[in-house]
Amino acid sequence: MFSTSSTDQLSMDSKPDTGVTIPLPPDKLKQVRAVVDALMLTEGQVSQVMTTLQAEMWDGLSRDQVRRKNTSLQMENTYVRSLLNGKEDGDFLALDLGGTNFRVLMCKMRGGVCESISRNYNVPIPKLHGPAIEVFDHLAESIFLFMKEENILDKRLPLGFTFSFPMVQEGLNKGILVTWTKSFACPDGVGQDAVKMLEEAIDRRGDIKVDVVAVLNDTTGTLMAGSYLDKKCGIGLIMGTGCNAAYVEKINNVEKWEDKDEVTDVVVIDIEWGAFGDNGSLDFTKTEFDEVIDAHSNWKGSFTFEKLFAGHYIGDLARLVLLRLTEQGLLFGGHVSEQLKTWKSFTAAHLSNIVRDTEDDTNYTDKALEDLGLKQKASNVDKAVIRHLCWALTHRATQFISASLAVLLNHMKWSENTIAIDGSLYRYHPYLHDMMTEKLAELAPDYKCKLILAEDGSGRGAAFVAAVAVRMQIK
To answer: Over the stretch 131-150, which tens digit does the pLDDT of each residue have?
Structure first.
């Protein structure tokens, strides 16, 4: 195992040690580490990320329009005024639209205990590029099919709508679409209320009775799902292809919300921190590889934070580094395969599996090399470099997300706080949970926290928000 040397220092402190032994001559080892270790943050950079995030959060909550314009965080008011308290009763529908595949669910709440039924549907590819009305008509048809199959067409049920696209909320059941993302490229719909578009599609049918009582994104849903599992849950996190968080905020801190009432003294805030750094505030953390990722993305200059480590991008970050080292003659004898030059040929799943390997067992690394067309070219030293890179990117993800969560823990000041997490990167990486737990204890030592997996937050979470809305009769 090697240690961090003074030549690797950026500012006054060192970067994490990945623990991988690389049997290279000192000159070549120095070249490899100069490229790979630049991906990890120093302690000083972690601290700067935290300071920057907290400042931008306050700007996003401010009533000062100049401050709000300068921050990269939406700090969106979700109008969710309470988490689950165990007194929710009734049947609640949920519509979970986050991509081409979507679901309709029914949650039966009895004394706060939930039993759920769900069915999967999909949006036909032609509709992804057609008028928005066709998308919402298709959603309404799917709600009808679900209710018909469950023999509940005679009931009038409240529905929570998870709409996982950037939106500005103007009420619990009013969300203005900011932009289509993912596979959706409809020519219209932007600037319109997603709930109204769904309600109009339901009305056009005339054969289903549904009240859309809430619209939310998957992060808010994950927080609600977490509160079902643990009453001390105050933060919801999505850590999958992208990254975002929501948390419980004190009403008095939300200066920009001028029409407060006395229903409760808290509200859930959707940070939309996938865009953290879009104003340049995180440029001090970016490498040349991050710039390439951004330039190649569908949304250049946007979603800066999640591009630094999230599942949609982390595989290509690794691939770009491998490509650079190979072009420098430091890997694979300088042989560059076509697969190594191909986007998405190395994925987050490859990375999550490779960190399971050891010096004596390189099964997952071998599989990745086969997918890259480089298995026959790779030496044991090459495999060690790949493991070192995957561990470095794991440390990087841990640093970014733990620093950000620590800001929330320090901001909220709950003595105990549970963080509900959903998303493939967190779920399938074998060590992220433990590494994040350890880092959070270091960065927010005054507050006890626990990380829990809250699967299906985007589905059941929507029904839970609907249940809370009915209980509190808020809009």
So the answer is: 999 999 999 999 999 999 99
